[in-house]
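Quick one: co-fold with magnesium ion.
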Amino acid sequence: MTTQYNSTPARKGAWKTLFLMVYRPQKKLFHTLMAVAIFTATIDASFTLVTKSLVDDIVANGVEANLLKYAVLFTVLMLSIVSSIWYFIRLAGRLSTTLMYTLRKQSFEHLQSLSFTFFDNNAVGWLLARITSDTTRIANVVAWGTLDLFWGIPFILGIFTVLLILDWQLGLVVLGLFPFLAAVAMWFNIRILDSSRNLRRTNSRITAVYNESISGVQTSKVLVREDENLKEFQNDTRKMYRLSMHNLLLTSAFYPFVNVFVSMAVGAALWLGGVDVLAGTLTLGTLVAFMTYARSLMDPMLEVSGKLAELQRTTACVERVIGLLEVQPDIADSEQVKKHIEQALQSGAETLDGGDARIDTIEFRHVDFGYKAEEPVLKNFNLAVKAGATVALVGATGSGKSTIVSLLCRFYEPTQGQILINGEDYRGRSLAWLQSNLGIVLQTPFLFTGTVRSNIRYGNLDATDDEIVAAAKAVNVHDIIMQMERGYDTEIQEGGNNLSTGQKQLISFARAIIGNPQILVMDEATSSVDTQTEHLLQQSLQTVLQGRTSFVIAHRLSTIRSADTIVVIDQGELVEQGSHDELLAKKGRYFDLYRKQFQTETEEELLSQ
Ligand SMILES: Nc1ncnc2c1ncn2[C@@H]1O[C@H](COP(=O)(O)OP(=O)(O)OP(=O)(O)O)[C@@H](O)[C@H]1O
Ligand SMILES: [Mg+2]
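Sure, here it is.
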């Protein structure tokens, strides 16, 4: 599958999927939030009703009116609204955090389940940055948007209801103006958002050009690019000026525009209501309430339309994230295998999927493979290996060595042909079973941020501290670790930058063997390590290979020579196979390779003996 994160096709109903995804596990939180919102909105709207009663009371009873009653009412309302707003904000904060956590967790987990093909088509760094910023944006907009919508909508509806109850005719006149207001507010909000984003983009472009021309000042002088750079810069700043003016115009026009509408509503209430008051059919208190309500509709109206516009503009992010979550991994257990796993769980079988526990043979049979359909990499590749053997893969760069082991690990699957374990297609076994029987050491060993201990434990999450030390000792890295500042608790910096390649490789040896895998796959490091580490690495390699079926992409002569089978690959085809002595005697491809690549190494070795 070649789905790309940045070009996920527009996906209808992404919001609904997102809502259900967040709502289901958070039902209680949502419901509480909604209840608190309605409560807050009701209290908020009640203030005006108290004012209404106060005015009517004073009009009717003059100085006899019981003012204390109103003072108490106001205080009670004030206290309730303050505490409910406080609670409301806390809940919304919790919703925001949970939402972000859920989205990130799900998208990262999902990424882990996707096959390598997906990452071939999507740059990982960019993908992560994109997801991080998308999920943050969604969480912020949704949580705080929900806050405003949850509060604003009941408030607006509440006021509408009160107005209609107080005087339905007058109410209808005031309400009639609000759909226009809502439309105008939406229109402005969307344009202001777009214009602000445009402005930000241009601004960062200018900054980038500015930085570039400063740091590249020598280069541009040499290339006589100064004039052009200046022109570019001028164009951008001119654009920035235009955009700023546009933005300013929109923002400054918005508020007066909305105000005109609201004033019209208030004016209509005053005029029509005033006539009624004079005729004695409407109390003064009701008129005051009407006018206050009409004015107080403005804020929630602006908030709600602003939030709706923001939500609308977040749709692209939501579609991207949901689209990503829906990308199906191309390599997954088949339905049949899933059934086997279930049965194995119930019957308490020895292996995860109820199949053989021991791996006796591994065979590549007529395997074809290409990363892209039109570019075959492996062509009719055949190789049979018995348990316990060490296979050294040699060949020029780009010949397909790493591809062979990637297929074995089932990071990719053959496009034609089969890979058989104990004579059975490995697609008939569960991925988890296969991969838990694999120990992998990569060419550039990857260490995770965390301690040395946790990095080794990654190979077997159940390993005890003693087992970790034992694994480290087995591959001769224990002493090196103990010399580090905090021993096994030494923090590994991002990507393991504080360690040498040799050290990283030794630690990944320990990680590879701690799960006691039956198959070991190793891409030997080509980068030079100091002779002492080299010696340690070679010794450790003996331990690592012992009793396992191993596939080593070998660069060291010592590894190649001691392998049981050497496989020479050329442009995706197996061209020679045999032991070191057999292949040398043949005087074929291996012989050439050996002479070209290792002659000097052999001489050095001989000299040092
Ligand atoms: N992820 C990928 N997507 C597309 N093409 C790839 C990918 N990985 C490798 N290739 C191509 O497949 C071919 C075989 O590559 P492979 O990495 O298996 O070679 P190799 O023998 O391991 O080389 P090296 O010794 O340099 O590691 C090369 O032509 C390479 O460009
Ligand atoms: Mg390779």
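If it helps, Residues 168-281 form one domain.
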